[in-house]
C-alpha cells in the first residue's frame, strides 16, 4: 500500500476525518464561492449548523450545468495567483467545464494516483507506460504525477502512434501500463499483425479507464496481454483519475479514496439517498480540494456502493463498475437502453472480435438500433486465405443468435451488421461506441 495508515483506517476514524474535512469544505465555499453561499442560504444551511455526515443530505446538489453557467472561474475558491493548473472538459456538449488546482491540490492528486497504481500492483522502480492523453484531459498528467510520486520510471508516451508505442514497450520493458481499454486492444491487434505476441511482453498489470468497459472486456484484455486488467475511475470535476481504483487481489469493486472524496448513491429521479447495494446515480463531495471544492456533484454515472471487507485489507468503501451514464441512456421505442449492456453480449460470443459500434437511426418515425460488429478472424478462418461472407448460412445463423441474445438483454430488436475483420475504426484514445444519426436524419 502507498499510504497504509490512511487506506486501512477504521470506519470510526474515517468518519471522524470525513466530518472534520466536510465542515472545512463547507466553510471554504461559504466564504469564498458566492454561488455556493447563495445555495446554502436558500436551503437554510450554515457551516456551524452541520452536525456530521447525517446532515450531508441537507447540502445542495451541484450539476454539470452549474459548472457551465459559472464558466470559466465562477466556482474557484482561491485567488487566481494561487491556481497553478487548469484542466477542462472537451466541451462537445456545450461550454467546457473548467477546474483549477492549487499546488496542494496537485500534491493530493499525485498521492491518490500513486495510491491507485499501488492498488493495481505497482511498485517503486517499475517502468510505467502511460498511454493516457496529455493536455486539458486529466488522464495523462494525473497518472504521470502519481507514477513519479510512487517512484516509477514514468514513460509519458500519451495516446496514438501505435507503432511507436509497440517499439517503446519492447525496448523499455514496462511492468505497468495505463490507457483506455479500446486503445490497448488496438495496440495488441497491431502487435499480432506484425508477428509479435502481446503475451511475450514484460507488462504485468494494466490500469484502464476513461470509457465504460465490462467484465468480458477484462477477460479479453487479460487473455490477449497476460496481465491483471484493473479499473480506475475519476472525473475532472472531482479531481481526475484516482478517485477510486480496483485492487489486484479482489477485482470486485473500486476502492474510493474516502479520505478525499465522500461518496453517495441517490435515486436519479428524486435525489433521495439509496442504501449500500442499491443501484443509482453516483454523487461525490470533495473533502480536500482548495481551488475547486465541490458539493454533492451529480456525476450522471450509474453504480452502487459497498462497505464490506475486501481481501486486500483496505477499509474504504468500494463502488461497482460503472453500468452507464444517465445522459448516455437511449430511449428506443419506450425502452431504456444502456449501450454498456451490449459489450458483455458481444464479447461473450467467441465468434466476434471486441470491435463494435452502435448506430441509432429513425425508421418511419420510430427509433432503431443497428449493431456493427467485426467477426473473429480465427473463427472464420480469414487468416488462412478464405474470405468472410456476410450472406452465407453461417453468417445468417450467427446474426440471428446475436439478435436474439440482445433482445433478451435490451428488450428491443437490434439489427446486426457483421463486418470484415479490421474494417471498423480503431481507437487512438476513447472509443466512440455510439453514433446517434437521428438529428442528422431530421435535418435532411
Question: Secondary-structure map with pairings?
Answer:
Blueprint: H1 4-7, H2 11-32, H3 34-42, H4 64-69, E1 85-88, E2 98-101, H5 103-119, E3 127-130, H6 138-150, E4 153-155, H7 162-172, E5 176-179, H8 181-193, E6 205-208, H9 215-225, E7 228-235, E8 240-246, E9 254-256, E10 261-266, E11 280-286, E12 297-303, E13 305-306, E14 318-319, E15 324-325, E16 330-332, E17 335-337, H10 342-347, E18 352-363, E19 366-375, H11 377-380, H12 393-410, E20 414-419, E21 434-436, H13 438-442
Parallel strand pairs: 3-4, 3-5, 5-6, 6-7, 18-21, 19-20
Antiparallel strand pairs: 1-2, 7-8, 8-9, 9-14, 10-11, 11-12, 12-15, 13-14, 16-17, 18-19
Helix pairs in contact: 2-3, 5-6, 7-8, 8-9
Ranges with pLDDT <50 over ≥5 residues?
A: none
Count of discrete domains: 2
Strand proportion, as a percent range, falls in 15-25%
Give the helix tally. Answer: 13
Arithmetic mean of pLDDT: 92
Task: Describe the protein in words.
- Its EC number is 6.2.1.30.
- The structure is a single chain.
- By secondary structure, this protein is an alpha/beta fold.
- It folds into two domains: 1-325, Rossmann fold; 329-442, 2-Layer Sandwich (GMP Synthetase, Chain A, domain 3), CATH 3.30.300.30.
- It contains 13 helices and 21 strands.
- It has a nine-stranded mixed β-sheet with strand order 4-3-5-6-7-8-9-14-13, sandwiched between helices.
- Helix 5 packs across helix 6 (138-150).
- The chain is globular, with a radius of gyration of 23 Å.
- The mean pLDDT is 92.
Short summary:
By secondary structure, this protein is of the alpha/beta class.
Amino acid at each position: 500500500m502507498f499510504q497504509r495508515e490512511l487506506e486501512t483506517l477504521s470506519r470510526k476514524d474515517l468518519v471522524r476525518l470525513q466530518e472534520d474535512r466536510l465542515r472545512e469544505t463547507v466553510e471554504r465555499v461559504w466564504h469564498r464561492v458566492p454561488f455556493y453561499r447563495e445555495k446554502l442560504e436558500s436551503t437554510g444551511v450554515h457551516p456551524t449548523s452541520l452536525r456530521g455526515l447525517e446532515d450531508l443530505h441537507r447540502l445542495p446538489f451541484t450539476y454539470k450545468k452549474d459548472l457551465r453557467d459559472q464558466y470559466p472561474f465562477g466556482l474557484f475558491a482561491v485567488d487566481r495567483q494561487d491556481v497553478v493548473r487548469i484542466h477542462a472538459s472537451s466541451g462537445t456538449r456545450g461550454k467546457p467545464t473548467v477546474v483549477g488546482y492549487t499546488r496542494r491540490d496537485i500534491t493530493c492528486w499525485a498521492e491518490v494516483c500513486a495510491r491507485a497504481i499501488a492498488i493495481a500492483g505497482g511498485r517503486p522502480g517499475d517502468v510505467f507506460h502511460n498511454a493516457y492523453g496529455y493536455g486539458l484531459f486529466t488522464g495523462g498528467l494525473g497518472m504521470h504525477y502519481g507514477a513519479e510520486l510512487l517512484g516509477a520510471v514514468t514513460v509519458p508516451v500519451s495516446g496514438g502512434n501505435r507503432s511507436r508505442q509497440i517499439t517503446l514497450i519492447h525496448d523499455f520493458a514496462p511492468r505497468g501500463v495505463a490507457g483506455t481499454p479500446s486503445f490497448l486492444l488496438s495496440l495488441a491487434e497491431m502487435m499480432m499483425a506484425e508477428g509479435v505476441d502481446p503475451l511475450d511482453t514484460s507488462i504485468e498489470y494494466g490500469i484502464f479507464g476513461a470509457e465504460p468497459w465490462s467484465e468480458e472486456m477484462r477477460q479479453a484484455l487479460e487473455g490477449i496481454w497476460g496481465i491483471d486488467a484493473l479499473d480506475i475511475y475519476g472525473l475532472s470535476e472531482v479531481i481526475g483519475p484516482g478517485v477510486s481504483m480496483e485492487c489486484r487481489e479482489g477485482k470486485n469493486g473500486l476502492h474510493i479514496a474516502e479520505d478525499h472524496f465522500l461518496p453517495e448513491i441517490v435515486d436519479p429521479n428524486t435525489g433521495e439517498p439509496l442504501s449500500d447495494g442499491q443501484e443509482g446515480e453516483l454523487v461525490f463531495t470533495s473533502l480536500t480540494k482548495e481551488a475547486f471544492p465541490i458539493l454533492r456533484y451529480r456525476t450522471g454515472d450509474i453504480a452502487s456502493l459497498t462497505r464490506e471487507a475486501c481481501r486486500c485489507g483496505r477499509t474504504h468503501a468500494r463502488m461497482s463498475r460503472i453500468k452507464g451514464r444517465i445522459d448516455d441512456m437511449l430511449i428506443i421505442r419506450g425502452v431504456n437502453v444502456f449501450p454498456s449492456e451490449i459489450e458483455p453480449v458481444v464479447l461473450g460470443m467467441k465468434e466476434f472480435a471486441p470491435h463494435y459500434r452502435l448506430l441509432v437511426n429513425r425508421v418511419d418515425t420510430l427509433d432503431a438500433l443497428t449493431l456493427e460488429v467485426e467477426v473473429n478472424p480465427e473463427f472464420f478462418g480469414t487468416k488462412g486465405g478464405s474470405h468472410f461472407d456476410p450472406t452465407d448460412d453461417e453468417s445468417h445463423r450467427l446474426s440471428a443468435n446475436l439478435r436474439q441474445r440482445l433482445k433478451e438483454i435490451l428488450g428491443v430488436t437490434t439489427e446486426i451488421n457483421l463486418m470484415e475483420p479490421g474494417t471498423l475504426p480503431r481507437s487512438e484514445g476513447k472509443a466512440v461506441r455510439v453514433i446517434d444519426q437521428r438529428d442528422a436524419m431530421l435535418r435532411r
